[in-house]
Amino acid sequence: MSSLAWVRGINATLGRIAPQWAADRMREVFMTPREHPPRDWELPLLASSERITLRFGLSALRWGDGPAVLLMHGWEGRPTQFAALIENLVGAGYGVVALDGPAHGRSPGLEADPVLFARALLEAAAELPPLRAVIGHSMGGASALLATQMGLRTDALVTISAPAKVISVLRRFADFVGLPPEARSRFIRRVERQAGMPVKQLDVARYQLSIPGLVVHADDDPKVPVSEAQAIHTSWANSRLLRLPAGGHHRLLSDSALSEAVLELLENAEQPMVFALAS
User: Fold this and answer.
1) What CA–CA distances, in Å, run from 240 to 38, 93, 109, 155, 244?
2) Residues 19, 102: one domain?
3) Which residue segment(s) compose the domain that 117 sits in?
4) Sign of CA dihedral 75, 37, 125, 111
5) Can you give the pTM of this predicted structure?
6) What average pLDDT score do residues 85-102 get?
7) Same domain, 259 and 215
8) Calpha distance 136→127 (Å, rounded)
9) Residues 6+ away with beta carbon under 8 Å from 241
């Protein structure tokens, strides 16, 4: 029996007998990231980086000089997953700072959530020059959107493979691990309590977004449906939607179309961008 089948079996049984126990256990699993070492293709970029430490021990990597671009990886991700994009940004004259999210890499913490990621972006921005752009992948993108509602200032914002609302992520996880309905409801409430914010507030449809933006997603993303990108774009009038026909959840980070679109956004951030680019 696979480990997932075993977890689903336990949750199917104990989730009905002891729903709070199952909810608490799955909340812990959901909010505790695993560490994945960098791939071989990430190592040259890692070797060329400068490791810096920001307030509260937040760790980051830095490359280049020039207008500041701040990057936030996704859940269980790494700064160097942005390797191709970072190389293009530095080559275009930008200075790039890529964070280790809370409880990731060398940043402190044992658990993380979108609110902690958003606060980390705010802390980093407070120590950096005025930001030309903030770019976030997956949960990093959702957290970047949230951070703008918490006071983050940037000339432009890019989300890549990001969910439009966190409740969708929680429901998909609960279904994935086989939580019965009552345990699933308690699981969502426990995540809310730990994050310190009602999950209904973590929804781009409730946000006020006026900065120029770019929403990037692959049609074949197996983790976050491309409909989430459309929802973000619909709620964000001053955004451009770039849908790639392929790229999954991570491979699109190295797609040249992504780098080209980001550089175009940065060059024209002061101009309204209200059209969508379909695949």
Assistant:
1) 31, 23, 35, 15, 13
2) no
3) 45-164+205-277
4) positive
5) 0.93
6) 98
7) yes
8) 18
9) 215, 217, 229, 230, 233, 276, 277, 278
